[in-house]
Amino acid sequence: MNKDKLLLVIDMQNDFVTGTLANEEAAKIIGAIAAKIESYQKDDHPVFFTRDTHGEEYLETQEGKLLPVPHCIKGTEGWQLVDQLKVLTVEEDVLDKPVFGSLQLPQWIEEKLSAVPAEIELCGVCTDICVISNAMILKAAFPETTVTVEGALCAGVTPESHQNALAAMKACQVNVK
C-alpha cells in the first residue's frame, strides 16, 4: 500500500443523499466520487470513509436539539454508505463518528497507516459542516501534511454555504481544488 497519500470520503450516507436530510447536490457527486475512489485504489493509495453515527437518543443531544431531524441512526438504512460507494470499501476502513468532526480521526489514520501521510484529500458531505470540521482537525493534527478538498466532489447544505466553507478552508491553508 502506498501510504503517502490517502482519500477520505466524508459521510456519503443514504440519509444525506436520499434520506431524511436528502441533498440533490450530494446525489450528483456520487459517480465522480466513485471514480476518484477507483483511481486511488488503482494507484494502491488507501481510501478511508467516515460515517455520521447517532443513537436512538439523538434528539436529546445538543446536536439533536439544534437539528431536530433524526438521521444516521446506527444500524438503519439511512446510516449506511450509499450503495455505489459501499461496494468500494471494507468495514475496517470506515470510522463511525458521533459528531461533525472526529477528534479520533488523526490517530485512527496514523494507526491504520503506521505513519503520518504526506497528503490527505477529502470529499463528501456536507462541505459546510462535516467536511470543513474534519479538514480543520486534520490540518491541526498534521500541520505539515497537505490537506486538500476538491470542491466539485463535495456538496454543502446550500450552494452558498458550500462556497463559504471552501473559502474558509482555503483561508486556513487547506488546498482547495
Brief synopsis:
By secondary structure, the chain is an alpha/beta fold. Helices cover 38% and strands 20% of the residues. It has helices at residues 14-17, 24-28, 30-42, 62-66, 83-86, 105-113, 127-141, 159-171; strands spanning 5-10, 47-52, 94-97, 119-125, 146-155, 175-176.
Folded structure, characterized:
A 6-stranded parallel sheet has the order 3-2-1-4-5-6, with helices on both faces. It is globular, with a radius of gyration of 15 Å. Helix 7 links the parallel strand 4 and strand 5. The model has no long low-confidence stretch (mean pLDDT 96). It is 38% helix and 20% strand. It has 8 helices and 6 strands, in the order βαααβααβαβαβαβ. The chain has helices at 14-17, 24-28, 30-42, 62-66, 83-86, 105-113, 127-141, 159-171; strands at 5-10, 47-52, 94-97, 119-125, 146-155, 175-176. It has 177 residues and is of the alpha/beta class.
What's the helix count? 8
Radius of gyration: 15 Å
Name the overall outline: globular
Spatially, the strands of the biggest sheet line up as 3-2-1-4-5-6
Oligomer: single chain
Structural class: alpha/beta
Strand content: 15-25%
Summarize model confidence as the mean pLDDT: 96
Q: Got a strand count?
A: 6
Instruction: Detail the poorly predicted runs.
Output: none
- What composes the largest sheet? 6 strands, parallel
**SSE string:** EHHHEHHEHEHEHE
Termini separation comes to 25 Å
Helix content: 25-40%
